[in-house]
Amino acid sequence: MSRSRRVESVDAPFWVSYADLMTALVMLLLLVMAISMLAVASRPLLERKQRDAAVDIFFEQLQQQIQRSALDMTANRTAHTIGLGDRVRFAHDSYLLSAEAKRQMQAVVPLLLALHAAEPGRSWLKRVHIEGYTDETGTYLYNVHLSLRRAQSVVCALFEADITAAEQRRLQQLLMIDGATTTSIKSTREESRRVEIRLEFRSVDDEEPTLPAPEVALGRCPIQTE
To answer: CA-CA to 215 of 20 to 30 Å: which in 1, 10, 168, 180?
Structure first.
């Protein structure tokens, strides 16, 4: 009996330690799983914060470029737009740009291309929308047509800038034309008759296009611009 009790007293500490070790391993495994699940769950939030920070940097660079170039433009980080100032305004019922307005638009081209080529624009800038607007006078459908003509007139002016064929192709892939009527009326009719540049940025869920954009000849502007 005494020998049996001695054997039990020797063996007992070993089995207790083994059980503690297994418990600790299970707890460690659960902790690792919890940390992994938390990391996976928080990844989209982290990516969105990184994306928003990159957009902030882009607009800081844009504002610096505007100040250095002395262009009559304003950058709106909240709306993701570039206001083109008083020079790019249209007369009533007109889509013609003045010579001064054309020069202003042509000066915008190298700025946009430079920002798109460098980080963070290269990773996050998706499209540049040219949006035409009208005042509240006239019918809805007529103003849709007029706003598109105004946006088209600005696009034609952009391609008159002194840029290379490769830069023209980049600009083609970047631009999109939109028309709007009374969706954004300003305080005066003169301010309302305008074109704005709206910048579209990729979301964290966007995927890069798998197919190259087709090469389409630039051609000539199909509308009279002067």
So the answer is: 180
